[in-house]
Known about the structure:
Oligomer: single chain
Organism: Devosia nitrariae
Low-confidence stretches: none
Structural class: alpha+beta
Distance between the termini: 34 Å
Radius of gyration: 15 Å
CATH topology: Nuclear Transport Factor 2, Chain: A
Number of strands: 8
Domain SnoaL-like: 8-129
Protein name: SnoaL-like domain-containing protein
Number of domains: 1
Amino acid sequence: MVSAEVQVETLLDSRSEAMRAKDIERLMSVYSPDVVYFDVVPPLQYIGSAQLRDRFLHWFGGWQGAIRQEIHDLRISASGDIAATSMLIRAGGTLKSGLEVDRWLRTTSCCQRSDRGWQIAHEHVSLPVDMANGRAVMDLIP
Length: 142
C-alpha cells in the first residue's frame, strides 16, 4: 500500500506538471471543488474551482511558453484523510512581454482525501515582504 505522504507528493507533482504544460483540466483535477486559494496577486482569496480556473487561465495567458515549476524542500505531514504540506517552488519562464522570470515562492497546501482521492482543499502562495518598505522581496534564493 502506498503511504499518504507518497500519494500527496504525487498529487503535487501532477499539479506542477499541469502548470508547466498549462493543462487547465489536469490542473483543476488536483483541486477540491470548494478550494480556498490565497495567491500573490489580488484579490485576497479565490473561493471555489470556478474562480481558481479563471485565475489560472489568466495566469497561463501571460507566458510565452512553458512555465517552470520545481518543488524544493517539500515537507508533508499526513494523518488519516488530511495532509498539510510546505514547500519552496522555483517558478519561471518567459512572459509575453519578453521578460525572463525566475522566482522562489513559498507555498503551503492543505490536502484532503475523499472518494475522488487526494485533492488540494486550501493553498497559500506567498513572497516575503520587506517590512521597511512594504514591498515583496523577489530575489531571495534558498
